[in-house]
Amino acid sequence: MRRVITYGTFDLLHYGHISLLQRAKALGDYLVVALSTDEFNWEEKRKKCYFGYEKRKALLEAIRYVDLVIPEENWEQKRTDMHEYHIDVFVMGDDWEGKFDFLRAEGVKVRYLPRTPEISSTQIRRDLGKQVG
Ligand code: C2G
């Protein structure tokens, strides 16, 4: 059983997120998603989510590619997560290229996959903001 993990906020879930999750799952048999908590998002990424953690978690759990959702509460947990969840492959979109190579020292493969162009939760907010009124 080849276990894959990825991390993210996954707010305003869109086809770019789904594509990442689909490609991440294709790298193994079991996909763990570490979902940024509301506190982590605000304190560390200055992101105010439209959907709170429980709603974002329920959306992810409904996706066929996702096998387990765990909370991402800080930047430091990745090292221990690799062992706690017996991870073989760590995957992120390539906007994070190189940032997590240190995880190779934990014995996992580190893969950065191309982001889906043109779509982001920020873009959705911006476009919807233009339509209101
Ligand atoms: N993504 C993508 N294509 C997009 C948008 C996002 O492939 N058009 C990918 C990102 O590269 C990331 C994942 O989808 O791998 C989740 O994106 P975000 O929710 O924006 O995650 P982020 O805020 O980058 O959090 O510790 C890591 C952080 O928690 C990552």
Our Rg estimate from Cα atoms comes to: 15 Å
Shape: globular
Write down how many β-strands occur, each being a DSSP E stretch of 2 or more residues: 5
Strand content: 15-25%
What structural class should be given to the helix and strand makeup?
alpha/beta
Strand order of the largest sheet: 3-2-1-4-5
Sequence of secondary-structure elements: EHEHHEHEEH
Question: Which molecules are bound in this entry?
Answer: [cytidine-5'-phosphate] glycerylphosphoric acid ester
Oligomer: single chain
Give a quick account of the main beta sheet: strands, pairing sense, barrel closure.
5 strands, parallel
How is this structure best described in words?
The protein is 35% helix and 21% strand. It is of the alpha/beta class and 133 residues long. Strands 3-2-1-4-5 form a five-stranded parallel sheet. Strand 1 (3-8), helix 1 and strand 2 (30-36) form a beta-alpha-beta unit. The mean pLDDT is 96. The structure holds [cytidine-5'-phosphate] glycerylphosphoric acid ester. Residues 6-10, 16-17, 20, 36, 45, 72, 92-93, 95, 115-116, 119-120 line the site of [cytidine-5'-phosphate] glycerylphosphoric acid ester.
